[in-house]
Structures are given as structure tokens and as C-alpha cells.
Amino acid sequence: GAGVSQSPSNKVTEKGKDVELRCDPISGHTALYWYRQSLGQGLEFLIYFQGNSAPDKSGLPSDRFSAERTGGSVSTLTIQRTQQEDSAVYLCASSRDHSGNTIYFGEGSWLTVV
Amino acid sequence: KQEVTQIPAALSVPEGENLVLNCSFTDSAIYNLQWFRQDPGKGLTSLLLIQSSQREQTSGRLNASLDKSSGRSTLYIAASQPGDSATYLCAVSSGNKLVFGAGTILRVKS
Q: Is the model's pLDDT at B92 over the cut of 60?
């Protein structure tokens, strides 16, 4: 597609439920990133994919968070047993590869846990 | 651990003024530095990318400089317009990820 596409754009869920957030990167981009932006906070790195593998998962805040990428394209970020502190904007980004190219962001998935 | 700081945190200027946003980083071992713009409720839009071997990049009314040895970058906006109002984020490519500053909130008054 023309840009990074994320869905859902907005999600309200009850505490304790699982949620899945989807990212469709720019076609041909091999590098994919997930970031989290909490209200009034900066961007927090979560995970990086090169192709289907995740060489850097260091930012995942707990074992309730997981992510996968299939076919070198679409990625899903899953949050299990959501907590209120998980409420944030989850931003996905992609770049052509991991060698200093411009990184393009999606519009984000706004998650509210009530 | 790479840390990125942006000054000022917020800036309000009248339309037409030239302005400078500052970014500093603690570890000079970076691949590149990127400036982004974020409008309220939106994702990030890439403005300029400066590779570690470069000193500056220009796009329209925007000019970004990089002094890797001193760990500093500036974003210069010429002849500011109300449409420039947004949060401006600086990010350095460090290892496998971008490390972001907290941003500068810019308001250009008409």
C-alpha cells in the first residue's frame, strides 16, 4: 500500500481481555517496528522485526506482550490480560531495511483499557 | 544507554518568525538522525533524515543540521506559518531502534 496501515484505529477493551493490533507495512519494507506512546509521554520502543524474525524484543514491557510477523509483511501485536496501564497509542513503523533508511509510521492504534 | 533531549519543551511564536529547535544525544555512535512532526491524534510524519556522515539536510523551509561529535542537531524553520503548529520529535538511530526525544510543542500564532 501507499503507507503503513494499522487496525483497529481505536479499541476500547475491558481489563483482563486480550487484544490484537495489526500492522500492514509499506510493500517491500523488510524492517518493521512497534512503539508505544502513552499520554504525555515520549515514544517507547517495543520490538523490531527484520523479515519474520525479531532480533530485538528488548522493549516488550512484560510477558503479556507478544508480536509476530508472517510472510515478511503483516505484523500482529498481542496484549494478553490487558491492564489499565496498557492504555496508549501503539504505533507501527517500517523501513526499506535496517541500514539507515527513512522510517515511516502508521497513524497508530489507540487502545483504552477500562 | 542512548538518551535524547529536546529543548525547548514548548515554543509559541508569531507567524513569520524564523525558529530553531534543539536536540542533543548522549552517544555519538549513531547511524542517522531523523526529525518527525506529529499532529494531535495522528501518527508521525518524517521531515528530514540526516545520515551520520552528513552535516545537514534541507527540505523547503526546513533545514536540519547534525554535529555528531558534540551530540547535537538543530531544526531550523524559516518564515513559520500557523500550519507548522505541531509537536516536533527528534530521533537517533541507535542499534536496532530509534530513540526519541520528548518533543517540542510548537504553536505559531496568526
A: yes
Q: Is the pLDDT of residue A72 over 90?
A: no
**Which of A40-49, A58-67, B57-66, B79-88 shows the lowest per-residue confidence on average (mean pLDDT)?**
A40-49
Compute the distance between CA of residue B98 and CA of residue B54 in angstroms, rounded to an integer.
18
B105 → chain A, closest CA residue = A40
CA distances for A97 relative to A93, A94, A107, angstroms? 12, 8, 20
A55 touches chain B (CB under 8 A): yes
The cell numbers describing B57, all together, are: 539536510
CA distance A13 to chain B (A): 19
Cβ of A51 under 8 Å from any chain B Cβ?
A: no
Distance CA A111, CA A32 (A): 20
What pLDDT is recorded for position A101?
A: 79
Which residue among A4, A55, A103 places its CB closest to the CB of B34? A103
Q: For residues B3 and B33, what is the distance between their CA atoms, to the nearest angstrom?
A: 13
